[in-house]
Write a structure and sequence with these properties.
Layout lengths: L1 E2 L11 E5 L4 E2 L1 E2 L2 E2 L3 E5 L2 E5 L44 H10 L7 E4 L6 H8 L3 E5 L3 H10 L6 H21 L29 H4 L9 H14 L5 H19 L2 E3 L3 E3 L8 H19 L6 E4 L18 E6 L9 H4 L1 H6 L6 H9 L23 H17 L9 H19 L3 E12 L11 H11 L2 E13 L6 E11 L1
Helix pairs in contact: 1-2, 3-7, 4-6, 4-8, 6-7, 7-8, 12-13, 13-14
């Protein structure tokens, strides 16, 4: 019989993975506990139902999730994550899978160098694991920072929510703006109500970077009034909490936008019920905080470029990072800054075309809108024959097809700069990794450039091995439909070890 040593605290994931045929017995405080198990291929995933852990922390059997829903967030995982999401991110249950797969413990440090809106950081926070995130997109970085700030007082937040609602309602009435606002249990406030006396607007520079038709006049006015009220709050952490709730309102209700997964324009909304939705969303966020307010695990988010980690990470972290769970952008034609452009402009993270360019210069070169004549990342992969051959094939196809747009002429450069940028990332990361650190990179194969196949995980494995990493495995996460070819292509998890 195999005796298992399993950590048993109130917040740990109490799951172990064993080869089939193993028998397990666990003793806790002198008592035997019944174990339930499920057979997944050649392993057993075992959990302990009698332990004092929250139900939402139990690991979902990923084998039970169909391919079409595998990248969707499960309802039981939604707390905090659904405050504001990046449509092209991965789901919390994938992070939980690798927290278990790598046997990550409370003393470990997890880094997500492409953290987006903080999925890895939030899951680490829920499980009392230290984490660090790096993200160049300012509003995604902002969202991550708010999500890991879970020590705010829920009662104080309700007080401020009452202030925002009453001030906005008064301002709407003063400005002759109709909003069907009806809340049975309206939060009370001790704060002095403010009146916004004139209708706010966006200046000309801002309008230049908002895609045409992404928001209609009446919804925009309501959003800007609520924003002005929020800006009266002096406590930055509380102000940011409610700004993130407003970002959710902009994306889910006010904007004429939808994702599929590309962002697109929908039929214009003449008007919206702003305050009802804002109250409901803010109230859900406060309720989520109450669930996790006792978690005091350290988490940190840095606004920066992961190709140059030595510019951002403290020297005290050299040799100390134990695990990476992340998903970098894929080499395709998706402009990641456009997906968050509307809320970035309205909430003042982007104010001009120069701001857009500054954000893009800190991004991994994954699409033609982030390629600049001064870029040199591609120089790093001149010795990688497979990458160079794919880039050359793309350019050859372009010439054969007589495709001469400015964007199409950059396709072969995207491949070179993308893998060159990942080379720089993995190189700058290595000194900060502990010996035998484990890394999980979620990456998708691509056929976006004249249908030339790019096996992203395989090519990144070659790059990593050249820098002294060991390829552990490439795991199929799911298949997805290629936008251009309508073929199913793989999305994989590249698992590496630092030697």
């Amino acid at each position: 019989m195999l005796r298992a040593s399993i950590r048993a605290t109130k917040t740990n994931i109490t799951i172990v993975q064993l080869k089939i045929g193993a028998q397990i017995k666990m003793q806790r405080r002198g008592a035997n506990h019944l174990l339930r198990y499920i057979d997944i291929h050649d392993s057993l995933y075992i959990w302990l139902p009698n332990m004092n852990i929250r139900e939402e922390h139990r690991m979902k059997n990923i084998a039970d999730i169909g391919n079409g829903k595998r990248n969707q967030m499960l309802e039981e995982d939604s707390a905090i994550h659904n405050w504001y999401q990046f449509i092209l991110g991965y789901p919390p249950h994938l992070v939980k899978y690798y927290l278990n797969e790598f046997n990550i413990q409370q003393g470990d440090i997890v880094l997500d160098p492409f953290c987006g809106t903080g999925t890895t950081l939030v899951e680490c926070l829920k499980n009392n694991i230290k984490s660090i995130g790096i993200e160049p997109n300012p509003i995604a970085c902002f969202a991550s920072r708010v999500k890991i700030t879970i020590t705010l007082d829920p009662n104080e937040l309700r007080n401020y929510l009452g202030f925002i609602l009453n001030s906005s309602k008064l301002s709407f009435k003063h400005l002759g703006i109709k909003d069907d606002y009806f809340i049975v249990d309206e939060p009370k406030t001790k704060k002095h109500i403010v009146l916004i006396k004139s209708i706010p607007g966006l200046n000309e520079e801002k309008w230049k970077v908002v895609p045409t038709g992404f928001i209609s006049k009446k919804p925009l006015v309501k959003v800007l009034i609520i924003k002005e009220v929020i800006n009266q709050i002096e406590d930055t952490r509380i102000k940011d909490f409610f700004k993130l709730s407003l970002a959710n309102l902009i994306v889910k209700r006010a904007g004429n936008i939808a994702f599929g997964p590309e962002i697109g324009r929908t039929a214009p909304k003449e008007d919206i019920e702003a305050l009802n939705y804002y109250f409901s969303q803010s109230n859900r966020m406060i309720a989520d905080l109450e669930k996790f307010k006792h978690n005091d695990t350290k988490a940190m988010i840095i606004n920066g470029d992961s190709r140059n980690l030595d510019h951002y990470l403290d020297n005290k972290l050299l040799g100390k990072i134990n695990f990476i769970i992340t998903s970098p952008p894929y080499p395709n034609e998706k402009d990641y800054t456009r997906s968050t452009r509307l809320e970035s402009v309205i909430l003042d993270f982007i104010n001009s075309k120069d701001d857009v360019r500054e954000v893009k210069t800190n991004l991994l070169r994954s699409n033609s809108r982030t390629i600049y004549v001064t870029d040199t990342d591609g120089e790093c992969i001149k010795g990688f024959d497979r990458i160079c051959k794919i880039a050359d094939e793309i350019e050859k196809k372009r010439l054969q097809l007589k495709k001469n747009s400015g964007f199409e002429k950059l396709y072969h450069k995207i491949v070179r700069h993308y893998f060159g940028g990942m080379y720089l990332h993995l190189k700058s990361l290595k000194p900060y990794l502990a010996k035998n650190a484990k890394l999980a990179y979620v990456v998708g194969d691509q056929m976006s450039f004249f249908r030339v196949y790019i096996p992203t995980a395989e090519l990144l494995a070659e790059v990593a091995e050249s820098l002294g990493y060991r390829l552990v495995k490439i795991e199929l996460w799911r298949t997805r439909l290629a936008t251009v070819t309508k073929q199913q292509i793989n999305e994989n998890v590249l698992v590496l070890e630092n030697l």
